[in-house]
Amino acid sequence: MNSRPQKQSMSELKYRRLVEHNQRLKEDLGRPRIRVSEASSSLIRYCKTTKDHLLPSIWGPVNKTEDPYAPTTEGCQCTLM
Fold it and tell me: Which part of the chain is the G protein gamma domain (predicted)?
């Protein structure tokens, strides 16, 4: 008689997991989707129009005023620890 409630609780646990999984699948189904061709063309367009300062061989030399990675010459260069 002791094993009967345990089996019932195991089946309830399995049922709860299935319900949660079903809910996640429904949420997944509700997400907006775009075609792969649209996503790839959008990515290509972004890469062609967005200047990457870490690739000067492609975009040419970067002005020091435009380069966010250039060391600043303003103010103190001290580091406090």
Answer: 6-81
What H or E segment, with its residue span, contains residue 57? helix 56-59
Predicted pLDDT at 48: 86
**Angstrom distance (rounded) from CA 26 to CA 5:** 31
Question: Does residue 28 sit within a domain?
Answer: yes
Report which residue type is found at 57: S
Residue numbers of the chain with a pLDDT score lower than 50 = 1
Please tell me the distance from the alpha carbon of residue 22 to that of residue 28, in angstroms, as a whole number. 10
What's residue 1's pLDDT?
47
- Residue-number span of the structural domain to which 36 is assigned: 3-49
Phi, psi of 68 (to 5 degrees): -75, -15
pLDDT at 2: 54
